[in-house]
Every structure is written in C-alpha cells, then in structure tokens.
C-alpha cells in the first residue's frame, strides 16, 4: 500500500480518534492533515509497520505543540487530555467507538440532512467533495459550503462528541444509515480511479455491523447490513480478468461469496418476520432474489420495486425499477417508464436509455444516448464499458 492508499484507508479513523482526544473536529482534521504532510518525507523509503498508529501519534504530537502555543483555558484542558493519552494507540483499540461517535456527532439534528451526511462522508469516509456531490447530484461548491458551515456550527454550538442516549438514537438513525450506505456505494462504484474501492466497502460493512450491535432491534439497521453483505457477495464477479466491468446478467455466479449470501439471506428472513418493511430492507430483499438460485426471478424483483417506490419515490429508484420492468414487460415499457425522469449529470439514466433503445433496434438513438452517458461517466472502467456497448451497436 502506498501513501495514497494509507490516506484513503486511515484518514477517517485517525480524525475520529483525534476528535475524541481534542473534542474539536476542525482541529483534529488539521492535525491529521499535518501528520500526512510529515509522512510524505518520513515515509519516502518505506511505510511504518502500523501507518494508522504513526499518523495518530504524529497528529497528537502536532496538536500538543499547537496547543502549547495557545493560552486559552480550553487549549490547556485539551493539552492535558492529550498528554495523558498513551504514546502508541493501537491500530484498532477504540477505533470502532470513535467512528460511531463521529457519525452520531456529525448527524446531529441541529444540522440539515445534507450537511449531516456530507460532513460525515468527508470526515469519516474520507470522500472528497466531487465524490459526495456525485452521490447527491449537486454541484461541488454546494457540498464544500455545507461541510464548512457544518463544522463551524458543531464548534460554535458546542455539540458534544459522543453517542447520544438511547432516546435520541432514532432521531439520527436515518442520516447515519444514509452515510454508511453512501460510503459503500462510493466503494462499489467509485467516482474515479479503479471501479471498486475495497477499503470503503469493507469499512461500510464494518460500520453496519457495529450499528447492528448497537441497535439490534431496528429493522432498517439489519436491512442495511443485509443489503451491503449481499451486494458485496457479488463483487468478485463484477470485474473481468482484464479489469472490464461485468454486468449482473453476465457474471459468473460461482465466484460469488456464498458465506456472505447465506448471512445476508438470514438477515432478510429476520426482517421479513418483523413485518416492518423499509427502504433498506426492501433493497436487501431485492438483492436476496438476485442471489437466490441460478437466475433472477424478475417478476419478484419488480414486485419488490413496486413496494420500494411507495417508500422512496425518487427518480433513482424509478430508474432501477425500469430495469426490472424491461425484463418482465419488455424494453418498450421500460423506456416509457423512464421517459419523464430528470437526473441531471447522472450517467446511468442515458446509459439505461441507450440499452433499452438498442434492444428495440433503435441504433441511431441508442448511439446518441451512449454518447451522452460516456460524456457524463467519470470512472474509466464504466466509460470503457459504455464505449464497448456503443461500438457493438
């Protein structure tokens, strides 16, 4: 792993740990960034045995130096806390609790929903503004402004860095689940670079497991964990031997992770017994159908999407439902279903339209739709896949 890889894998954990020590997210972020700057020179020859611990220790020492130069009572108190911490924090140790605290702090109801998730994705997931903007289909400037304002509000309002009490958890749960879901999504289909970022997928699953331990009686928490496990189970077959994207219908199902599928199916059955369906449970059920048997029962998938649309009537859900409509009722019906959808900048809308048009033999229109999708796609692997499909018209 190189320095960039360490940054992606360890940034959120290190900021979370320093925030626990300092009680100030902004100061923690600055200290961790300083530590990575030092690492550029220190790690020129080789990485340390435990890069995460090295970053935390260096960031802690940089923070102490900074606080010593300040004379406020708050700075002296923070310095005292830092000085009494052990010199070498473990690689994991309290990290899990630290990250949960970070999620719940950033998802405080005093912040807007977009600010909550944008800040947490930046601080915990280590995602950059373009990646977060892609998830929400909004301009990068909007995300940057929301993050800055959210950190300022947390500092000025003295919002505590802690997991709220049990009575306050449900109020924040929706945003927390959204954060974990979007971290996984960025890992499973990254904005740029390799198609899959395994570190983000694994981190999202770890966080989902931690949430399931914290709130085992919340059906949507169990549903999210099941969704991530069943999606992750298909990842080994998602990229071909030459790094090309392989769509679901063409994947080698023998490569799927059967242990994750079995665990995910068990969690879906738990959700069904509770009879309190929600968006993540329904998505998990859809993925359970995809991973049940040698082929997908598209009629069952469409029925589940019909329920999901009732819970989450968004354009993206409608677009995904159209894929099932095409399998059950044909591409013309699916094309009609997406005709009025408005998803500016989202490459999968013209990509889906192109596929449906090609299946109808409308190659000229399909060619134009593929061209639009290629222009919007930011990931090289996805762009190459679309170019191949266009060339095969």
TrEMBL record:
Keywords recorded for this protein, A-Z: Sigma factor, Transcription, Transcription regulation
Domain of life: Bacteria
Domain (DUF6596): residue spans on this chain: 172-271
Pfam family, one: DUF6596
Domain RNA polymerase sigma factor 70 region 4 type residue range list: 102-154
Residue span, RNA polymerase sigma-70 region domain: 7-71
Keyword presence, Transcription regulation: yes
Family to which the UniProt record says this protein belongs: Belongs to the sigma-70 factor family. ECF subfamily.
Stated name of the protein: RNA polymerase sigma factor
Organism: Kibdelosporangium philippinense
């Amino acid at each position: 792993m190189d320095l960039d890889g360490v940054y992606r894998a360890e940034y959120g954990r290190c900021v979370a740990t320093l925030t626990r020590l300092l009680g100030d997210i902004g100061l923690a972020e600055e200290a961790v960034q300083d530590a990575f700057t030092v690492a550029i020179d220190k790690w020129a020859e080789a990485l340390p045995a435990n890069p995460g611990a090295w970053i935390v220790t260096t960031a802690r020492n940089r923070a102490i130096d900074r606080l010593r130069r300040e004379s406020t009572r708050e700075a002296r108190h923070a310095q005292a806390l830092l000085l009494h911490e052990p010199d070498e924090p473990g690689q994991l140790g309290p990290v899990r609790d630290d990250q949960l605290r970070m999620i719940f702090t950033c998802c405080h109801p005093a912040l807007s929903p977009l600010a909550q998730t944008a800040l947490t994705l930046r601080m915990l997931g280590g995602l950059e503004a373009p990646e977060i903007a892609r998830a929400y289909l909004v301009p990068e400037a909007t995300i940057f402004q929301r993050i800055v304002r959210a950190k300022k509000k947390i500092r000025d309002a003295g919002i505590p860095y802690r997991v709220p009490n049990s009575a306050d958890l449900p109020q924040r749960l929706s945003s927390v689940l959204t954060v974990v879901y979007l971290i996984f999504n960025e890992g499973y289909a990254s904005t740029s670079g390799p198609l899959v970022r395994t570190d983000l997928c694994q981190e999202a699953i770890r966080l989902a497991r931690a949430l399931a331990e914290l709130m085992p009686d919340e059906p949507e928490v169990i549903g999210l964990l099941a969704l991530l496990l069943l999606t992750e189970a298909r990842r080994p077959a998602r990229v071909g031997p030459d790094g090309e994207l392989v769509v679901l219908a063409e994947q080698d199902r023998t490569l799927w992770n059967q242990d994750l599928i079995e665990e995910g199916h068990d969690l879906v059955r738990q959700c069904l017994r509770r009879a309190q369906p929600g968006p993540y449970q329904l998505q998990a059920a859809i993925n359970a159908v995809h991973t049940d048997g040698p082929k997908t029962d598209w009629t069952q998938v469409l029925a589940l999407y019909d329920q999901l649309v009732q819970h989450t009537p968004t354009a993206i859900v409608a677009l995904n439902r159209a894929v099932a409509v095409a399998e059950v009722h044909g591409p013309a019906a699916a094309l009609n279903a997406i005709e009025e959808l408005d998803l500016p900048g989202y490459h999968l809308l013209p990509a889906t339209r192109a596929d449906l048009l090609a299946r109808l033999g409308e190659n000229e229109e399909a060619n134009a739709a593929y061209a639009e999708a290629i222009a919007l796609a930011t990931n090289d692997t996805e762009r190459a896949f679309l170019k191949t499909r266009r060339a095969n018209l």
